Amino acid sequence: MNLQNAAAALYGVSGAQVRAYRVGGARVAPYRTGIPAVMANPQQAPIEYGPEQYRSGGNSFLGLGRTVIPAGSPGTTVNIRPVRPFNPLEMRFPSTVVGLMIHALDIQGVNFFANQPGLGLPIELLSEVATFKGMDLTTIQPETGITFTVGNPGATDLIFMGAFRGTQVLI
After folding, report:
1. Which domain, by its residues, includes 32?
2. Same domain, 48 and 61
């Protein structure tokens, strides 16, 4: 499958010419071009975003805020909505948060974890000191956002917090 077919399959766009490359140098603000999050005209020829429209992935974050997960909670729902389409590359949680279980991570109704109900992923596996850094997730749209289902099997309330690092299109 070539990049154009991948863009059509993943993002529902056709006719997009994907040109992923980095522009700029040490003294020039670098920016990236690539797959569009939204395409207004499917007949449009090569799509390129300039520095004023597309932020470098190293500069874009989506914070998850702070949510109290009650002691003994089998699953508390946390909904996050970005202000514009956001493509997550890394998901990080502080290593100071220990004991929470992420049961589901839903984007547009799709759970990206293969867990059976009631089983969860220990949040420690995704801390800033963990060796696993990447997540192959789809673009998070403002209309649907992302939903976490977080459990706390412990005896004290814990705070769920974290952030995504990724890219966003500024349109």
Report:
1. 1-54
2. no
> How much is the pTM?
0.65
Contacts of 164 (CB under 8 A, 6+ apart): 61, 62, 64, 86, 88, 89, 90, 91, 92, 140
Which among 98, 78, 92, 95 is positioned nearest to 154, based on CA atoms? 98
Length of the chain as a residue count: 171
Burial of 113 (0-12, 13-18, 19+ CB in 10 A): middle
Tell me the three state secondary structure of residue 6.
helix
50 and 120 together in one domain: no
User: Alpha-carbon torsion 69, 72, 77, 82, what sign?
Assistant: positive
| Residue 50, pLDDT score | 53
pLDDT digits (tens, 9 = 90+) for 106-162: 988 888 887 777 788 899 988 888 887 667 788 888 888 999 999 999 999 999 999
- What phi and psi values does residue 26 have, to the nearest 5 degrees? -65, -30
Backbone φ, ψ for residue 148 (5° rounding): -100, 140
